[in-house]
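Hi all, long-time lurker, first post. I run a small reading group and we've been trying to get comfortable going from sequence to structure in the token notation. Rather than ask abstract questions, I figured I'd post a concrete chain and ask someone more experienced to write out its structure so we can walk through it together at our next meeting. Sequence below, copied exactly:
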Amino acid sequence: MSLHHKLLARQADGRPIRVGLIGAGKFGSMYLAQVPHTPGMHLLGIADLSPVGARSNLARVGWAAERTMATSLDDALRHGTTFIGEDWQALVRHPAVDVIVECTGHPLAAVEHCLAAFAAGKPVVNVTVEADAMCGPMLAARAQAAGVLYSLAFGDQPALICDLVDWARTCGFPVVAAGRGHKWLPHFSRSTPDTVWGYYGLTPAQARRGGLNPKMFNSFLDGSKPSIESAAVANATGLGVPSSGLLYPPASVEDIPFVTRPRSEGGVLERKGMVEVISSLEPDGRAIGYDIRMGVWVTVEGETEYIRNCFEEYNAKTDPSGRYFTLYKRWHLIGLEVGFSVASLALRGEPTGVALGWQADVVATAKRDLGEGEVLDGEGGYTVWGKLQPASRSLASGGLPLGLAHGIRLRRAVAEGQMLTWSDVVADESSSAFRLRREMEGTMTPQA
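-- Answer (accepted) --
Happy to help. Here is the structure in token form:
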């Protein structure tokens, strides 16, 4: 039975999936826009540091005010409405909640929320992929130990890539490469919140009008988010990681199977079975027609002559040899798709992507020469960006994970382009995220 029919059955039985949402910002708002139109699903409560802001976002996406008049979670349960408050712990502990959706975008907070949900016996859809890139294998292990499920979020590109990889392998195709698209030129890695709108093609006034967060958008532009998402995919699928970081080969959709081949066959890959990101810009800055900037893709191999003949007979676009074929989704709809993950966890008991091992890491890297005593400002800021690395190399060098490179001070100067290590900083050891990450480094063996 399809997920939609299962949802209809839950609605008919008066047993909707009860959801608790932590964080009602942009991504959360997109999910909220879909919940009223999804059968068999009841958003029981929202926990947000700004309940006023959450209500404003609900109004923006079209919720009627009376849907959020509940005075408590119990009141919301009785009347089929939604309670809004600041107390995420009460939301996580409430016995009626079936699934927690972590949507804060704050990696340290997300780790704490996930661990508390597991302790309360609640499965988690984790939208905050930054937390997954930092310690996803440990979060998955903690969830398993608690007897609950943990999942990446559909709509975000990692879960969609995992879905394509699963499709390929289930059909019997070897996966040669998989990933997402991005607008990329090498100097974007030095971008700051002051330069991001020029690179995006917006004026500061347009950005202010749209309420756009320059630090968040810069985390996409400077390569941090593509690295984070690629790490999550590698850890969930077992695909390998380029030894020197993402290459961002430029390609149109039709050219993806050309470039995502091994170097020995004219492509850019060190070997078969890797993550990569395709750029929508040529090296000189020219835009590529029919790009994959907002989409995801997987390249598979036709191992036999018969399969390659089938590619040809059905006009599948391949590389010149006819051996490599790319399937893609040109768009992703972000928070509008999260409900698929919620339904999959609750109704099928299946995550839409979860770390199965430690393949990849994202290491904080200096955007400019940094001086002793400077305070790092994390993802999308002025000081560091995130570079994808094989986990074995990051662990051996003591690489500082990007997710923990915020609000901490440098012990020594670091040159532009240098990847930071634990010994370069005075780490904040008080957070659950720090402890979980250090536990992962001490107990898990990165996969080769």
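A couple of things your group might point at:
The chain has three domains: 3-155+335-348, 158-184+223-332, 360-443.
The first strand starts at residue 17 and ends at 22.
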